[in-house]
Amino acid sequence: MGGAVIQCGDFEGEDKSGSPIPAVLAEAYVRAFGRPPRGKVGAGLARLLGRGTEGAEAQVERAILSVKYDEEGEIPPEVAELLLPHLMHYQQALLQQLGIEDDVERISEHRGGGAGAKYGGKPDPGWHLYCLHDLVKACHKSSKERTPIQVLW
Hints:
- The protein is of the alpha+beta class.
- Helices cover 58% and strands 9% of the residues.
- The protein is built from 7 helices and 4 strands, in the order E-E-H-H-H-E-H-H-H-H-E.
- The protein has helices spanning 21-33, 40-48, 55-69, 77-98, 104-108, 115-118, 125-145, and strands at 5-8, 11-12, 72-75, 149-152.
- Strand 1 and strand 2 (11-12) form a beta hairpin.
- The chain is globular and about 45 Å long.
- The N and C termini lie close together (11 Å).
């Protein structure tokens, strides 16, 4: 079964840790902007109706669509920097919910089975934490070095 890996500069995340990244980024988007991101069709319709998002919201929505649909998705440093506090807060909430430390072995014990959990189709704190473990590190690196994060499927 395939999956996605998170990379930023010389950092490479754990095997398949990026698999639920669209769902994880959508949660960070809700935390940042108070509403869910529009999907591919919703964003296109909103633009046609003159109701497209602008600025940071639009940039984050484009990054979410990129990591969801592009074979080599990209999160620009500006988006990484903007979402980092929301991703960290989400990570801490999940760690507290499961009562564990940010340790890959401990997190792996809590990952659910099946493609729905792995790819974010069904909420799974273990898979989301597995993704956040690497995504938060990549966001720190991206923010500091101004290098985009790559999500390779």
